[in-house]
Amino acid sequence: MPHDTILPFELLNRASQAIKIAITIILCSYLSRVLLIAPFHLVQHEMTFDSADAGASLTYPMQCSALRKNGFVVIKNRPCKIVDMSTSKTGKHGHAKVHLVATDIFTGKKYEDLSPSTHNMDVPNVSRREYQLLDISDDGFLSLMTDDGDTKDDVPLPDNEVGQKITKLFKEEEKDTNVIVLTSMGEECAMEAKEAPNQG
């Protein structure tokens, strides 16, 4: 077969190979960008999710209309106990509003809030535990025994009637004393004291 009849086919083959190579280079370039950028987006999502989870463990959302008197709610970033609540309408076409009166479970400070009944509010996770009192340190901290026999020394003796009651029972009357500790949103406080039940 003459040489000049093969040449156009060779050129066509070379051209198609060049096009394939160019397409491959473009695809590789695109994929490398996607693969390099994607991990950063994933890391950002994971970090945001983790930080949200960390905060969520302290509180959970509840619709205003589902809150109840003597229940708990977060007002101005403080864990509070609801002492009074009422629902009212603002007008013919207005949404129902919930008026909350609550006290800080640690300080006793009074807070009020007015929100639409369909609005979600944060409710603090509150735990109440009873410990045996072992000692009161000179710097004003309670030494408490946990259920597993360890000592807990980070709860201060309250500067109020509860603190006076703890001191009276334990120091003056030398009674076996149990202390009830309230924990919420990273804070702890001794809320009550009572004579420990007789084991014998």
From TrEMBL:
Its main location: cytoplasm. Pfam families: eIF-5a (PF01287), IF5A-like_N (PF21485). The keyword Signal does not apply. It is found in: Cytoplasm. InterPro entries: IF5A-like, IF5A-like_N, IF5A_C, NA-bd_OB-fold, Rib_uL2_dom2, Trans_elong_IF5A_hypusine_site, Translation_prot_SH3-like_sf. One of its GO terms (cellular component) is cytoplasm. SUPFAM superfamilies: Nucleic acid-binding proteins, Translation proteins SH3-like domain. Keywords: Cytoplasm, Elongation factor, Hypusine, Initiation factor, Membrane, Protein biosynthesis, RNA-binding, Transmembrane, Transmembrane helix. GO terms for biological process: positive regulation of translational elongation; positive regulation of translational termination; translational frameshifting. The chain crosses the membrane at residues 21-42. Gene3D superfamilies: 2.30.30.30, Nucleic acid-binding proteins. One of its GO terms (molecular function) is translation initiation factor activity. Residues 125-194 form the Translation initiation factor 5A C-terminal domain. Belongs to the eIF-5A family. This is Eukaryotic translation initiation factor 5A. It comes from Gibberella moniliformis (strain M3125 / FGSC 7600) (Maize ear and stalk rot fungus). The lineage of its organism: Eukaryota, Fungi, Dikarya, Ascomycota, Pezizomycotina.
